[in-house]
Protein backbone atom coordinates (compact mmCIF):
# COMPACT_ATOMS: atom_id res chain seq x y z
CA UNK A 1 0.00 0.00 0.00
CA UNK A 2 2.79 2.42 0.88
CA UNK A 3 4.63 1.55 -2.33
CA UNK A 4 1.52 2.31 -4.41
CA UNK A 5 1.18 5.73 -2.79
CA UNK A 6 4.85 6.51 -3.42
CA UNK A 7 4.62 5.38 -7.04
CA UNK A 8 1.53 7.55 -7.58
CA UNK A 9 3.47 10.50 -6.21
CA UNK A 10 6.42 9.77 -8.50
CA UNK A 11 4.34 9.23 -11.60
CA UNK A 12 1.58 11.77 -11.06
CA UNK A 13 3.30 14.21 -8.75
CA UNK A 14 4.73 17.58 -9.52
CA UNK A 15 8.05 16.15 -10.59
CA UNK A 16 9.80 17.27 -13.74
CA UNK A 17 8.76 15.48 -16.94
CA UNK A 18 12.26 14.14 -17.61
CA UNK A 19 12.51 12.74 -14.10
CA UNK A 20 9.11 11.05 -14.41
CA UNK A 21 10.17 9.51 -17.73
CA UNK A 22 13.36 8.19 -16.16
CA UNK A 23 11.40 6.70 -13.27
CA UNK A 24 8.98 4.95 -15.63
CA UNK A 25 11.83 3.56 -17.71
CA UNK A 26 13.82 2.54 -14.65
CA UNK A 27 11.14 0.89 -12.54
CA UNK A 28 8.24 -0.03 -14.81
CA UNK A 29 10.12 -1.08 -17.92
CA UNK A 30 12.76 -3.01 -16.00
CA UNK A 31 10.08 -5.18 -14.41
CA UNK A 32 8.04 -5.54 -17.59
CA UNK A 33 11.02 -6.44 -19.76
CA UNK A 34 12.66 -8.88 -17.36
CA UNK A 35 14.27 -11.61 -19.48
CA UNK A 36 13.35 -9.87 -22.73
CA UNK A 37 16.68 -10.77 -24.32
CA UNK A 38 15.49 -14.37 -24.68
CA UNK A 39 11.98 -13.61 -25.92
CA UNK A 40 10.84 -14.53 -29.39
CA UNK A 41 8.63 -11.66 -30.48
CA UNK A 42 5.71 -12.35 -32.75
CA UNK A 43 3.68 -9.56 -34.32
CA UNK A 44 1.00 -9.90 -31.63
CA UNK A 45 3.61 -9.61 -28.89
CA UNK A 46 5.03 -6.47 -30.48
CA UNK A 47 1.57 -4.90 -30.55
CA UNK A 48 1.05 -5.76 -26.88
CA UNK A 49 4.37 -4.16 -25.94
CA UNK A 50 3.58 -1.02 -27.93
CA UNK A 51 0.19 -0.80 -26.20
CA UNK A 52 1.87 -1.21 -22.82
CA UNK A 53 4.30 1.59 -23.61
CA UNK A 54 1.47 3.92 -24.63
CA UNK A 55 -0.48 2.94 -21.50
CA UNK A 56 2.52 3.95 -19.36
CA UNK A 57 2.86 7.33 -21.06
CA UNK A 58 -0.89 7.97 -20.83
CA UNK A 59 -0.92 7.12 -17.12
CA UNK A 60 2.06 9.39 -16.54
CA UNK A 61 0.33 12.31 -18.28
CA UNK A 62 -3.09 11.58 -16.67
CA UNK A 63 -4.74 11.06 -20.05
CA UNK A 64 -7.92 9.03 -19.86
CA UNK A 65 -8.80 6.63 -22.64
CA UNK A 66 -12.10 8.49 -23.01
CA UNK A 67 -10.26 11.70 -23.95
CA UNK A 68 -9.60 10.32 -27.47
CA UNK A 69 -6.03 11.56 -27.67
CA UNK A 70 -4.03 9.97 -30.49
CA UNK A 71 -0.85 8.05 -29.72
CA UNK A 72 1.27 10.48 -31.73
CA UNK A 73 -0.03 13.37 -29.64
CA UNK A 74 0.77 11.52 -26.42
CA UNK A 75 4.32 10.87 -27.61
CA UNK A 76 4.69 14.55 -28.51
CA UNK A 77 3.51 15.56 -25.04
CA UNK A 78 6.10 13.39 -23.31
CA UNK A 79 8.72 14.20 -25.96
CA UNK A 80 9.44 10.52 -26.63
CA UNK A 81 9.43 8.07 -29.49
CA UNK A 82 8.02 4.58 -29.33
CA UNK A 83 11.19 2.80 -28.26
CA UNK A 84 10.29 -0.18 -26.08
CA UNK A 85 10.94 -2.54 -29.01
CA UNK A 86 14.30 -0.86 -29.65
CA UNK A 87 15.19 -1.52 -26.02
CA UNK A 88 14.43 -5.22 -26.48
CA UNK A 89 16.56 -5.34 -29.65
CA UNK A 90 19.45 -3.71 -27.76
CA UNK A 91 19.09 -6.22 -24.93
CA UNK A 92 19.08 -9.13 -27.38
CA UNK A 93 22.17 -7.81 -29.12
CA UNK A 94 23.92 -7.36 -25.78
CA UNK A 95 23.01 -10.88 -24.66
CA UNK A 96 24.05 -12.60 -27.89
CA UNK A 97 27.27 -10.57 -27.89
CA UNK A 98 27.98 -11.74 -24.36
CA UNK A 99 27.39 -15.36 -25.38
CA UNK A 100 29.50 -15.10 -28.53
CA UNK A 101 32.49 -13.60 -26.69
CA UNK A 102 32.60 -16.56 -24.32
CA UNK A 103 33.79 -20.04 -25.19
CA UNK A 104 30.93 -22.08 -23.78
CA UNK A 105 28.49 -24.81 -24.67
CA UNK A 106 25.68 -22.37 -25.47
CA UNK A 107 27.86 -20.66 -28.09
CA UNK A 108 28.60 -24.01 -29.74
CA UNK A 109 24.92 -25.00 -29.75
CA UNK A 110 23.87 -21.68 -31.28
CA UNK A 111 26.51 -21.87 -34.00
CA UNK A 112 25.69 -25.49 -34.87
CA UNK A 113 21.95 -24.79 -34.99
CA UNK A 114 22.44 -21.83 -37.30
CA UNK A 115 24.74 -23.83 -39.58
CA UNK A 116 22.18 -26.63 -39.61
CA UNK A 117 24.42 -29.26 -38.06
CA UNK A 118 21.97 -30.04 -35.26
CA UNK A 119 18.88 -31.75 -36.60
CA UNK A 120 15.44 -30.60 -35.54
CA UNK A 121 12.56 -33.03 -35.26
CA UNK A 122 9.81 -32.46 -37.78
CA UNK A 123 6.31 -31.71 -36.61
CA UNK A 124 3.08 -31.16 -38.42
CA UNK A 125 2.02 -27.66 -39.33
CA UNK A 126 3.92 -24.43 -39.54
CA UNK A 127 7.28 -24.29 -37.83
CA UNK A 128 7.28 -22.20 -34.67
CA UNK A 129 9.48 -19.14 -34.65
CA UNK A 130 12.31 -19.40 -32.15
CA UNK A 131 15.03 -17.14 -30.80
CA UNK A 132 17.60 -18.10 -33.42
CA UNK A 133 15.10 -17.49 -36.21
CA UNK A 134 14.54 -14.03 -34.77
CA UNK A 135 18.29 -13.40 -34.80
CA UNK A 136 18.56 -14.57 -38.39
CA UNK A 137 15.66 -12.35 -39.43
CA UNK A 138 17.08 -9.17 -37.96
CA UNK A 139 20.73 -9.47 -39.00
CA UNK A 140 23.06 -11.87 -40.61
CA UNK A 141 24.60 -14.05 -37.93
CA UNK A 142 28.16 -13.66 -39.23
CA UNK A 143 27.89 -9.87 -39.09
CA UNK A 144 26.39 -10.01 -35.59
CA UNK A 145 29.23 -12.28 -34.46
CA UNK A 146 31.83 -9.96 -35.96
CA UNK A 147 30.35 -6.96 -34.16
CA UNK A 148 30.09 -8.87 -30.87
CA UNK A 149 33.73 -9.90 -30.90
CA UNK A 150 34.87 -6.29 -31.26
CA UNK A 151 33.63 -4.60 -28.07
CA UNK A 152 34.36 -1.04 -29.14
CA UNK A 153 32.43 -1.54 -32.37
CA UNK A 154 29.58 -3.12 -30.38
CA UNK A 155 29.39 -0.21 -27.98
CA UNK A 156 29.49 2.32 -30.80
CA UNK A 157 26.67 0.55 -32.57
CA UNK A 158 24.34 -0.25 -29.65
CA UNK A 159 25.21 2.56 -27.25
CA UNK A 160 27.53 3.09 -24.33
CA UNK A 161 25.21 1.49 -21.78
CA UNK A 162 25.29 -1.81 -23.62
CA UNK A 163 27.78 -4.45 -22.69
CA UNK A 164 29.64 -5.36 -19.57
CA UNK A 165 31.60 -2.78 -17.65
CA UNK A 166 35.33 -3.05 -18.29
CA UNK A 167 37.45 -1.84 -15.41
CA UNK A 168 40.60 0.03 -16.30
CA UNK A 169 43.68 -0.41 -14.18
CA UNK A 170 44.83 2.82 -12.57
CA UNK A 171 48.41 1.84 -11.87
What does this structure look like?
The chain is an all-alpha fold. It has two domains: 2-82, no CATH class; 87-158, no CATH class. The protein has nine helices and no strands. The chain is elongated, with a radius of gyration of 20 Å. The relative contact order is 0.10. The model is unreliable at 162-169 (pLDDT under 50).
What attributes does this structure have?
171 residues, 9 helices, 63% helix, mainly alpha, elongated
* Chain-averaged pLDDT: 76
- Order of helix and strand elements from N to C terminus: HHHHHHHHH
C-alpha geometry: elongated
Number of domains: 2
Brief write-up:
This protein is 63% helix and 0% strand. With 171 residues, it is mainly alpha-helical.
List the helices and strands and how they pair.
Blueprint lengths: L1 H11 L4 H16 L10 H18 L10 H8 L5 H18 L3 H11 L15 H8 L2 H9 L1 H8 L13
Helix pairs in contact: 5-8
Amino acid sequence: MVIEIKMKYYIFGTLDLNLRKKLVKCYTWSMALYGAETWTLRAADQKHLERFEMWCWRRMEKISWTDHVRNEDVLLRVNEQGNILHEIIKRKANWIGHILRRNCLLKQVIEEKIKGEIGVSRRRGRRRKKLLDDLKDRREYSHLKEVALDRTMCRNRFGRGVGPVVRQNTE
